[in-house]
Design goal:
395 residues; alpha/beta; 7-stranded mixed beta sheet; 3-stranded antiparallel beta sheet; 14 helices; 41% helix; binds pyridoxal-5'-phosphate
Length: 395
């Protein structure tokens, strides 16, 4: 058996390794408190589940769905963008439902990237932007996201020859893993940059609804001319606690949407229709659960930030998203620190290096952990100590 060269360049997905380690510990009977994966612990709202159950009873929904999704779902997505961001979308040509946004993010590279082509990818970042590029035969060029630049890429620092060879520009705000947000002036600048260099922009925005302290994230699609140059990926996963349901969407430039639809129609057979009806209910039904869940995440955020700062791990409260990006203690790499936490106190966090070389020096903690686990996890974190470093709570 001879596998492709492509496989040699494809590492196992970040979470596969972390989950394996956690599972090994648990199999030995050790209790692990996991701040690792951003998978909401709160249930999907009841009205959405009810709609699924109802739709599942209808034999029409047992058949193959269309790649383009139900027209009613595309309408519901367009109306949601209008209500939430004031963005007008044509439901037929500018909206495409996805089997979770991850598949669309992975597949879009096939529409733009030929062998040797460059995609501009943030570092640190959600790994699928670069892995999709590599699977398509292209090369990611990593744009550092640095604290001194508020974790926004410095577009002017990208070398001229790289920009010339680049076809795609990836961005993600509210950002995973740094917790940073971007404002409209940055997105307007991105549109200008994309026009100047003939780039297609892919903005990934699954965390736009998870926000705190009255802050409201903006959409890339609100930028002047965004539709000319780009598209946005979004998801119901985090907004409605539907990670396991696998449903998301791409919106924006009609040519990009059409290309993605063509690739997908050749590779997948759409989203189960009962799930699509549930998604319509999520987007069009009562939205009060979002505020309620955000209050829970905000309370957890404040608990984690207070504890981290008390024990001397520098971390800032994010305005949006599900993650805390904390600096590791001096003398540790992010991997050493994460391994040490897991081994000594049974707490799992993600080492920043897993998101790219500029993630070194940080670990990511997710807020998707039930309160009892959170409190226990924080008390274990406070108790972590070793010969090199000793936490001293200020209080
Ligand atoms: C930045 C980012 N984009 C996309 C996704 C994928 O979301 P889904 O495929 O569940 O829509 C995630 C999931 O954690 C993410 O963090």
């Amino acid at each position: 058996m001879r596998m492709s060269k492509r496989m040699e360049n494809l590492p196992p997905y970040l979470f596969v390794e972390i989950n394996k380690k956690i599972a090994e510990k648990r199999a030995k009977g050790e209790e692990v408190i996991s701040f690792a994966i951003g998978d909401p612990d709160i249930a999907t709202p009841a009205n959405i589940i009810d709609r699924l159950c109802q739709a599942a009873q209808d034999p029409a929904n047992h058949r193959y769905p269309e790649t383009a999704g139900l027209p009613e779902l595309r309408q519901a997505i367009a109306q949601w963008y209008q209500r939430r961001f004031g963005v007008s979308l044509d439901a037929d040509s500018e909206v495409l439902p996805l089997i979770g946004s991850k598949e669309g993010i992975g597949h879009i590279a096939l529409c733009f990237i030929d062998a040797g082509d460059i995609a501009l990818v943030p570092d640190p970042a959600y790994p699928v932007y670069s892995m999709g590029t590599i699977l398509a035969g292209g090369k990611p060029y990593y744009m550092p996201l640095l604290q001194k630049n508020k974790f926004l890429p410095d577009l002017d620092a990208i070398p001229e020859d790289i920009v010339k060879g680049a076809k795609l520009l990836w961005l993600n705000y509210p950002n995973n893993p740094t917790g940073a947000v971007a404002e409209l002036d940055f997105f307007n600048r991105v549109v200008q940059f994309a026009r100047q260099h003939d780039l297609a922009v892919c903005h990934d925005a699954p965390y736009s609804e998870i926000c705190f302290d009255d802050y409201q994230p903006v959409s890339f699609m609100q930028a002047d001319g965004a539709k000319e140059v780009g598209m946005e990926f979004h998801s119901l996963s985090k907004s409605y606690n539907m990670t396991g349901w696998r449903i998301g969407m791409a919106v924006g430039n009609a040519g990009m949407i059409e290309a993605l639809k063509r690739v997908k129609s050749n590779l997948d057979s759409g989203i189960p229709q009962a799930i699509q009806y549930a998604a319509i209910e999520a987007l069009s039904g009562p939205q009060d659960s979002i505020e309620k869940h955000n209050a829970t995440y905000q309370r957890r955020r404040d608990l984690v930030i207070d504890l981290l700062n008390d024990i001397g791990l520098e971390a800032r409260p994010p305005k949006a998203g599900l993650y805390i990006w904390a600096k590791v203690p001096q003398g540790y790499t992010s991997l050493e620190f994460a391994n040490d936490l897991l081994d000594k106190v049974g707490v799992a966090v993600i080492p920043g290096i897993g998101y790219g070389s500029n993630g070194e020096g940080y670990v990511r903690l997710s807020l998707t952990i039930p309160d009892a686990g959170l409190v226990k996890g924080l008390s274990r974190l406070a108790g972590w100590q070793d010969s090199k470093h000793r936490f001293k709570a200020k209080k």
